[in-house]
Every structure is written in C-alpha cells, then in structure tokens.
Amino acid sequence: MSAAADEVSRAIAALFSAHGEAFQAINVQVVALNDRFVALLNSSVARYASAEAVSDQLLAAINGPAQAWLGRPLIGDGANGATVDGVGTNGGDGGLLWGNGGRGGDSTAPGAMGGRGGAGGWLWGNGGRGGNGGPGEVVITGGVPVSASSAGTGGYGGSALLFGNGGAGGDGGPTVVIEDGVAHIDPLVGYEGRGGNAGAILGTGGAAGGGYHIPGVNRSGRNGLLGPLPA
C-alpha cells in the first residue's frame, strides 16, 4: 500500500471514529432525557393519584352522612340500573345538590316494564333514561293461538327539579311471534316510556321512548318555565 493510500485510510478511520464518538455522546444525552421524562411522568402520576385520593376522601366525607340519613348523596351521579331476574331495576338518583340520574335497567322477562331513570339533583342535574321494556310473546300452533303475553312498557325517564333536562323514556318491548316453532318479530310493540320532566326553572323535557303511542296523548316530558337550557 502506498503512503498516500495509507494516509487516506487513516483519515477515513479518524472520521468514522469521530462520528462514532459523537453518536455515543448524543445517545447518552437522549437516554438521560428519556430518564428525566419518565421520572417527571411518574412524579405527575403520583401527584395526580394523591390528589384523586384526597378528592375521593373529601367526597366520601361529604356524601356519607347524607347517604346514611336520606339514602342519597349530596354530590354525584346516580348508579345505572341493572337487569335482575329479567326485570330492569331503577336508576339511582343524582346527588341532592347536583348530579345526573342513572339509566334505568332494561327488562328481558316477557311483559316486564323497563326500570325508571333516576332523578337529577335538586339544584342541577339531568334525569336518567328509562330502561327498555321486556318482550311480548305469542305462540301459535296450527293456526291456533296457544298463549300470549303483552310486551313491556318502556321505563319512565327521570325528572330534574330546578335546572336540568328530563330523561328520555325507554322503548317498549318487541313482540315475538312463534308460529309452529318458527319465531319472528311482530310490529306490535309495548307502550312507549314517558319522558321525564325538565327542571322547573330551566331545561328540556325528555322525549318519549319508541313503542306504541296512544293517539292524542303526549308522553314527552315538560320543559322548564324559562324554556330549554342554552346550548
């Protein structure tokens, strides 16, 4: 190898060595920055969890006596209803001061009415939606009706007191027709659930649920005295 080629090789090696050292230095800085970011994130999470725990303890201290004496918290949303043995349970009421009512549970048992939506808070809160009614069932064998049960009515929407919207009514249950062992859904459904009333001062009444509508009967909830809440 000539002297000139040897000089070029050394120059190239020195160049790559310098780049390698620079890359290693940058990599060390990136790792350190990542470690600082992770430490900051963990610290923020810990502070948030601590603040959340304090908030939960404070809320429990406020709500505990009211829940024990009146069966209803001062602040907070009501729990949603459930389906128990095929029947929808009522949604929990919102807090006495403010909070939204829980949704009524859906019924799955034939003819069962959906659970009622929980009431909104006295000062501020929306009523919960009513649960859906259970199905009706008609059994026909050889063209002869053997048994029949009506579809369930949709649960009533929860109402607000002063400010808030009424909950929508639940849907009436469908009717299942079983004819010679073959099932299909009939257009006949259960009665629509009534919408909850809005707050007396401000709010929009809940809409009636889907289902059979009695002609001439308004099943929607009442609006507040000053009309709907501003959007």
TrEMBL record:
Protein name listed in UniProt: PE domain-containing protein
Q: Which residues form the PE domain?
A: 2-54
Q: Which Gene3D superfamilies match?
A: HP0062-like domain (1.10.287.850)
**Organism encoding this protein:** Mycobacterium gordonae
Pfam families documented for this protein: PE, PGRS
Q: Which InterPro entries match?
A: PE-PGRS_N, PGRS_rpt, PPE_sf
